[in-house]
Design goal:
Layout lengths: L1 H5 L1 H19 L17 H13 L4 E7 L15 H6 L8 H15 L10 E2 H6 L5 H10 L11 E7 L10 H14 L5 E3 L1 H35 L2 H24 L11 H30 L9 H29 L7 H30 L13 H17 L1 H19 L17 H12 L4 E8 L6 H18 L5 E4 L1 H5 L8 H11 L1 H5 L2 E2 L4 E8 L5 H20 L12 E2 L1 H35 L2 H25 L10 H24 L4 H10 L1 H17 L7 H32 L10 H12 L5
Antiparallel strand pairs: 1-3, 1-4, 2-3, 5-8, 5-9, 6-8, 7-8
Helix pairs in contact: 2-10, 2-13, 9-10, 9-11, 9-26, 10-11, 10-13, 11-12, 11-13, 11-26, 12-13, 12-22, 12-24, 14-25, 14-27, 15-23, 17-21, 22-23, 22-24, 23-24, 23-27, 24-25, 24-26, 24-27, 25-27, 25-28, 26-27
Keywords: Cell membrane, Membrane, Transmembrane, Transmembrane helix
Main location: membrane
InterPro entries: MMPL_dom, Mycobact_MmpL
C-alpha cells in the first residue's frame, strides 16, 4: 500500500486519461429492445414463434380502436344496444356508409406507415364488403370476429395492423409506432392504440429513459448525502468521480466485446453508483477514525503534511482486504444470476460482476490520492446528529449484551413467521401492471379490452397435408370445437380457426370446397390461418391482458393440454414439431414464471458462493456461517412479507434475493473485520463495542447512501423499477438490523471464551478512542 500512496498522483492522472479515452467507446453501447432476447435461441416456444412468423408473416399486431355512435346501417332511429341486437334487425348487416368511408381512409393512412404490412391490414368495412350479400353469412362473420374487429356493444370497431419484422422495416419500430399514434390522434373521438408490440416498446422506452434520468438523480442525491455526512468537497468529488469513471470504463468494455444493454441491465449505472459510493464511504469513515484517534493521542500529529501519506497507507492497508472481499462477494451475488434461464438476466450478471471488479480497481487507483494528496488535508467532518447516532449504537450494543435471549427470540420469531410467506408468492403476468394506471398504454388497453376484446395474441400451429381434405378439416373442426367448449364460460378468451371460416354459410359441397370458394373472394381471410406453400395452419387465440396471473397461466395450460391430448390420439396427423400454444402472450407469461423459479436457484448459489468467500476471507467456517444469517434474515422478511400480503412477483422483485445478498454482505464483512481486529487485544464484549462504534457507524452511513440511491428508483414510470427500488431499500434497512443486532448476538454466542489477558492496555485505548471520537470535530 505504501507504493500505491507514493505514486498516487500518477495513478489519478492515468485513471483520468483512461476514462476520457473510454467515453467515446461507452457511447457505442446499445440497448436491445427485443423481447425475444430474453430467451435462449433454442427455447421451444421461441422456435415455434419464429417459425410461425416465417410461415404466416408475423404475429405482432397493433389494434387501433374507437367507437362510432352508429357503426352499422340500421333503419331504426334508436340504435341497438348490443351487437346481438344489431344482428336481430331484419336487414343485411352492413357498415354505415359514412363510417365505412372513414374506416377505409384511416386504414389507408395507417397501412402506408413504413414498418406496417399494409397487405395484411384488416377492418370491418372491407370484411363485410367482400362477403356475400347473404344475411346468415354476414351474421356468422360478425359473430366470428366479435372481440377483434367489432365489440359486443355494436359500436366499437378497430383496424388490425400487422407489423413487419424490425429487420425488414424501412424505419425503426419506435418511428413506426409514433406515426401510428400520430394518425390515431388525428382521428375523430377517443381512439386507443394497443397491442403487445406497443406494450413491449413502451416498456423498453420507459426503462431506457428512466435509467438515464434516475442515474443522474441518484448521483446528485448521493453527492448531497456525502456532503451532509463529511462536509468537504474532496469527500464528495472523489466518490462521485470514482463512480462516473467506473460506469464509463464498464460501458466501454461492454461495447468492445459487443455486449448490449437490456431491460434488466438498464439498472447498471445506478447499481454501480451505490456500490461505489458505499465502498468509498467505508474507507472515508475508517480514515476519519484513524485521524481522530491520532489527534486524541497526539494533537500535533496532524500538523505536518508528511503524516497524511502514513495515515492513508494505514487506512488502505487495513481496508484493502475488506474492500476486495466486499467487491468479490457483491460480484458473487450478481454472478449467481448466471443460473437464470433468461438470457438478459445472465448478461446482467456478467455485466454487474465486471462493474464490481472495475469499482474495486478504481478504489485503489482513486482513493490513495484522495486520502494523502494536498498540504492542508482536513479531517472529514462529523454529521450534526452523529453524537446521537453514537449513543444509539452504544444503547443497541448494550441491549444485545444485556438481553441476548429476548433479542434472539424476537429475531427467530420474525424469521419463522416470514418463511411460510415465501411459499405463498404469486406471479404477476398482467403486463399492463408494469405501467402506471395513468399511462397511455394502460388507458388504451382498458378501452380496447372493455369495449372490443383481448389484446393478447397467441396461437396453436401445426402441419397440414399437401392438399386440404374434408377429413382433415373435420378433424381440425373437432379440435376447434373442443377449444370452444373449454373456453365457453371464459369471456376473456376468443378462438378463431380456419374451420370457422369454412363453416360460414352457405355450407355447400364440404369444408374443402367452401374454403376454396372463400379464398377466391377473400384470400386474406384464409391466408391469415393457412399457408399452403409451407403446409402449416394455425388457430388464433385472443386473450385479455388485464387478468389475474393465475387465470392467464391456467388458460395456457388448459389449451396446451387439450391440444396435446388431441394430437396424441391422432397419430395419423403426423407433425414435424409437437403442436403447442405459443406466441408473445405465452412468452411474456413464462418470462415471470421463469424468473421466480430462477430466484430460488440464484439465492442458493449466492449463499453458497458467499459462504465459500467468507470462509476463505476469515479462515473460519464458523464466521462464514454466521455471516450468512444476518443477510438471509432481511431477504426472508421482505420476500415473506410479499407472500403474506399477496403482492405478486414481477420482473423487478424477482431478482431481489441475490442482489440484496450481494449488497448487504458488504457491511457484514466490514463489521466482522473490525471485530476480529479488536478481538486481538480485547474481550468479546469490548471488541463488539469497538466494532459498533467504528464499523457500526460506517454501516449506518453506507446503508443510508444505498437506501437514498435505491429510493430514487421509486420515481420511475416503469412499475417493476419502483418495486425493485422500494423492496431493495427495505431489504437494506433489514440488513442494518441484521448487522447491528443479529450479527453481534451470534458473535457473542459463538466467539471463543475470553482469556484473562484479553483486556490489555491496547484494548482500553481502542475503547477509549471509540467512545471519545464524538468529541472531535
Amino acid at each position: 500500500m505504501r507504493q500505491l500512496v507514493k505514486i498516487r498522483n500518477y495513478l489519478l492522472v492515468s485513471a483520468a486519461v483512461i476514462v476520457l479515452a473510454a467515453i467515446p467507446l461507452s457511447e457505442r453501447l446499445h440497448f436491445d429492445q427485443t423481447i425475444e432476447s430474453f430467451f435462449a435461441a433454442d427455447n421451444p416456444d421461441l422456435v415455434i414463434l419464429k417459425r410461425s412468423r416465417r410461415d404466416f408473416g408475423g404475429d405482432e399486431f397493433v389494434i387501433v380502436a374507437w367507437s362510432e355512435p352508429r357503426l352499422f346501417d340500421v333503419p331504426d332511429e334508436t340504435y341497438p344496444s348490443s351487437l346481438e341486437d344489431v344482428l336481430k334487425v331484419d336487414v343485411l348487416p352492413a357498415v354505415n356508409e359514412d363510417v365505412s368511408t372513414r374506416i377505409r381512409q384511416n386504414a389507408e393512412r395507417l397501412s402506408s406507415v413504413p414498418g406496417v404490412n399494409g397487405k395484411q391490414t384488416q377492418h370491418l368495412a372491407d370484411l363485410l364488403a367482400a362477403a356475400p350479400r347473404y344475411k346468415p353469412t354476414r351474421r356468422s362473420m360478425l359473430r366470428m370476429f366479435e372481440g377483434t374487429l367489432v365489440g359486443q356493444d355494436g359500436r366499437t370497431t378497430g383496424i388490425m395492423l400487422e407489423l413487419q419484422p424490425e429487420q425488414a422495416a424501412e424505419i425503426s419500430r419506435a418511428e413506426t409506432l409514433a406515426r401510428i399514434r400520430e394518425i390515431a390522434a388525428d382521428m375523430q373521438g377517443d381512439v386507443a392504440v394497443a397491442g403487445e408490440p406497443v406494450q413491449v416498446y413502451d416498456m423498453f422506452r420507459l426503462v431506457e429513459e428512466d435509467a438515464r434520468v434516475l442515474f443522474l438523480v441518484s448521483l446528485v442525491i448521493l453527492a448531497i448525502v456525502l456532503w451532509v455526512l463529511f462536509r468537504g468537497l474532496r469527500w464528495v468529488l472523489a466518490p462521485v468521480g470514482l463512480v462516473l469513471g467506473s460506469v464509463v470504463v464498464t460501458r466501454a468494455i461492454l461495447a468492445l466485446v459487443g455486449a448490449e444493454l437490456s431491460m434488466v441491465s438498464s439498472m447498471l449505472s445506478s447499481l454501480v453508483t451505490v456500490i461505489g459510493i458505499a465502498t468509498s464511504m467505508h474507507v472515508i469513515v475508517h480514515y476519519r477514525d484513524l485521524r481522530n484517534s491520532l489527534l486524541l493521542n497526539d494533537p500535533e500529529a496532524t500538523g505536518p503534511a508528511g503524516d497524511f501519506p502514513a495515515i492513508a497507507t494505514q487506512t488502505l492497508r487495513e481496508m484493502a482486504a475488506p474492500i476486495c472481499w466486499t467487491c468479490l462477494t457483491t460480484a458473487v451475488g450478481f454472478a449467481s444470476l448466471l443460473v437464470s434461464q433468461i438470457t438478459p438476466v445472465r448478461s446482467f450478471s456478467v455485466m454487474m460482476s465486471l462493474a464490481t471488479g472495475v469499482v474495486m480497481v478504481a478504489c485503489f487507483v482513486v482513493l490513495p490520492a484522495t486520502l494523502a494528496s494536498g498540504s492542508r488535508l482536513k479531517v472529514p467532518s462529523r454529521v450534526p446528529l452523529e453524537s446521537w447516532l453514537d449513543r444509539a449504537l452504544l444503547l443497541n450494543c448494550r441491549t444485545v449484551e444485556q438481553r441476548p435471549m429476548i433479542t434472539g427470540i424476537v429475531c427467530a420469531a420474525l424469521f419463522v413467521v416470514a418463511i411460510p410467506g415465501v411459499f405463498r408468492l404469486q406471479l404477476e403476468t398482467d403486463f399492463s401492471r408494469n405501467f402506471k394506471k395513468s399511462s397511455t398504454i394502460v388507458q388504451a388497453l382498458e378501452f380496447i379490452e372493455t369495449r372490443l376484446g383481448g389484446a393478447g395474441s397467441w396461437e396453436v400451429s401445426f402441419d397440414t397435408p399437401e392438399k386440404l381434405t374434408d377429413s382433415f378439416l373435420r378433424d381440425i373442426q373437432r379440435l376447434t370445437d373442443q377449444l370452444h367448449e373449454l373456453t365457453d364460460d371464459d369471456p376473456t378468451i376468443r378462438i378463431l380457426s380456419l374451420t370457422d371460416v369454412a363453416d360460414l354459410p352457405p355450407r355447400l359441397f364440404g369444408p374443402a370446397k367452401s374454403l376454396a370458394r372463400i379464398e377466391r373472394k377473400q384470400p386474406m381471410l384464409v391466408r391469415n390461418f393457412y399457408n399452403k406453400d409451407a403446409n402449416r395452419m394455425r388457430i388464433v387465440l385472443r386473450s385479455v391482458e388485464q387478468q389475474s396471473s393465475e387465470r392467464k397461466i391456467a388458460q395456457i395450460e388448459e389449451i396446451r393440454s387439450c391440444v396435446q391430448q388431441f394430437f396424441d390420439k391422432r397419430p395419423d396427423l403426423e407433425q414435424s414439431v409437437p403442436p403447442s400454444a405459443s406466441g408473445m402472450f405465452v412468452l411474456l407469461a413464462e418470462l415471470i414464471q421463469s424468473l421466480l423459479s430462477d430466484q430460488l436457484k440464484s439465492f442458493v448459489v449466492a449463499s453458497s458462493g458467499i459462504l465459500i468467500c467468507m470462509a476463505i476471507a476469515f479462515r473460519s467456517l464458523r464466521i462464514a456461517v454466521l455471516s450468512l444469517l444476518p443477510n438471509m434474515f432481511p431477504v426472508a422478511i421482505v420476500m415473506g412479507a410479499l407472500g403474506w400480503i399477496g403482492m405478486p412477483v414481477n420482473i423487478g422483485t424477482a431478482m431481489i434475493t441475490s442482489v440484496s445478498m450481494g449488497l448487504t454482505v458488504d457491511s457484514t464483512i466490514h463489521y466482522i473485520t473490525a471485530f476480529e481486529r479488536a478481538r486481538q487485544n480485547c474481550s468479546v464484549t469490548e471488541a463488539l463495542h469497538v466494532a459498533h462504534a467504528g464499523a457500526g457507524r460506517a454501516v449506518v452511513f453506507a446503508h443510508c447512501a444505498l437506501v437514498a440511491g435505491f429510493l430514487v428508483l421509486t420515481a420511475a414510470r416503469f412499475i417493476p423499477l419502483v418495486y425493485f427500488g422500494a423492496l431493495l431499500s427495505l431489504a437494506l434497512v433489514g440488513g442494518v438490523f441484521g448487522d447491528l443486532v443479529l450479527l453481534p448476538l451470534l458473535l457473542r454466542w459463538t466467539a471463543p471464551k475470553d482469556s484473562a489477558n484479553d483486556a490489555d492496555q491496547a484494548c482500553q485505548s481502542d475503547v477509549a478512542a471509540a467512545e471519545l471520537a464524538d468529541s472531535v470535530d
